[in-house]
Amino acid sequence: MSRYAMAIDTKRCVGCTDCVVACQTENDVPVGYCRDWIVEATSGVYPELQLEIRSERCNHCSDAPCVRCCPTSASHYAEGGIVMVDHDDCIGCKACIASCPYDARYVHPEGYVDKCTFCIHRVKEGENPACVSVCPTHAMIFGDLDDKNSEISKVLQTRKHKTLIPEAGTKPNVFYLL
Amino acid sequence: MQEINITSGRMNPGVDPLLHAWGWEIPLYLFLGGVVAGILFFSAVYYLRGKANDYKAAVKIAPLFVPPLLALGLLALFLDLSHKLYFWRLYTTIRWESPMSWGAWTLLLIFPLSTAWAATFVKELYPQWDWKYEILNKLDDWLKKYRTQMAWALIFLAVILGMYTGILLSAFNARPFWNTSILGPLFLTSGLSTGTAVVLLISKNHEERKRFSKLDMALIGIELFLIIHLFMGFLASTEVHIHAAHMFLGGPYTAVFWSFVVGLGLLLPLFAEVLELKGYKIPVQIPAILVLVGGLILRFIIVDAGQSSRWLYKFIEQMYY
Ligand code: SF4
Ligand code: SF4
């Protein structure tokens, strides 16, 4: 068994949006849509301000409400826990869109629901997702959490990290290194 | 200070800036589901209590509206789907974890059962009626023997349907305003209340009207109680739930909710029904129509508000302050 995950280093990310463009190109994302996006979060009181830059996407949650609420099983767990939408099973009821606390999904102009796939077609070939491989600062690490020797397992053992809104209870698999 | 920007400019249609997965179709579907649940519930209950002739409008006439209302509801659901050609996929799987799924199956059970139920009353209402085909006449006779069983099944399914219209929404943990178990009972109560309103509209019998007026008053009382609890629950919960409640307590939904749903849809009909019982001449149509319109607006507002409430970042700040 494998459990795929991503670690994104907020200390390295400069918010260049290369990952966003790489995804759109790799996955033929329709114009005006995106499967990943860059968030800049500022917190604190001037002059003690903190800036965190994050590349966000579907978290491929281990306890995914989008999979649970799908009436047709179009949304499902594929290899390594990657959450996928089977286009030919999707009726476009949009329950999964409403169920995702991260707003990671959208209706593709062709009618089915679409979102980040962790580039499963590349992962199956042993490659990294497009966003990971294109990142100029090497801010992203993709890998298998069940393999204790993988780079991602090691980095999560040594670096402080967080997930986004863990209190929503979905067990996200995209980690942010702090 | 907390400021969050999406610098890559995410503007996915239907998702940004505020989620808009569901427009008018789903609230209409939920409303019709509630009305149908209400009609069937009272029809079956009063049938079992031997009131089929005293409360003719409730037991025999109102169910005739159910099949067309259900068809309209299913049509609304269908129109909402963005991948329509694959509609049949709903009925190749049963997924208990998905309210969409078991709701669709419940409708599939209720449709033929309620049609059969209504059909058994047609000959009693229109003695001239002829089913044209011998087989239909036979079927009619056969079905009449099972009315008691049908009534029990309808009560059971009507309660499920009425609750489901709320649970469909409350199952979404991701939308704080929907994420309350009060929505199931609230929509069920509102559905039953709209059911009594339909009976009030078609009944010509004074006794029956009085009974359903009283029922409606009790249901409205329960609804008000549930609404207060809804907000108390939110205000005692987490930050996102408090934010969600504030949309109705000073935020963008305040005016329409308290004036249209609570004022026009609940308090005013309640008041009118009380006056009527006291002997004032008030056309019963007025509270009935108010209840129906109020129930419809309630569904619209709740579907809309839920989509504007969220856990994560960005627009929350702009929206409230
Ligand atoms: S982030 Fe959203 S779409 Fe992705 S798995 Fe989690 S709930 Fe589903
Ligand atoms: S829109 Fe498609 S993938 Fe999403 S819940 Fe409905 S059928 Fe499943």
What features would you describe in this structure?
The complex is a heterodimer of chains A (178) and B (321). Chain A is of the alpha+beta class and 178 residues long. Chain A has a single domain, classed as 2-Layer Sandwich (Alpha-Beta Plaits). Chain A has six helices and ten strands. Chain A has helices at residues 18-26, 65-69, 95-99, 120-123, 130-134, 151-158, and strands spanning 4-9, 36-45, 48-57, 75-77, 83-85, 106-107, 113-114, 140-144, 161-162, 174-177. The longest helix of chain A has 9 residues, at 18-26. The radius of gyration of chain A is 16 Å and the shape is globular. Chain B is mostly helical. Chain B has a single domain (25-320), classed as Formate dehydrogenase/DMSO reductase fold (Up-down Bundle). Chain B has twelve helices and one strand; from the N terminus they run βαααααααααααα. In chain B, helix 4 (99-125) runs antiparallel to helix 6 (147-170) and helix 6 (147-170) packs across helix 7 (183-202). The two termini of chain B are 13 Å apart. Classes of the chains: A alpha+beta (178), B mainly alpha (321). The interface between A and B is large, with 53 and 50 residues. Residues 58-61, 64-66, 83, 100, 102, 104-105, 115, 170 of chain A line the site of one iron/sulfur cluster.
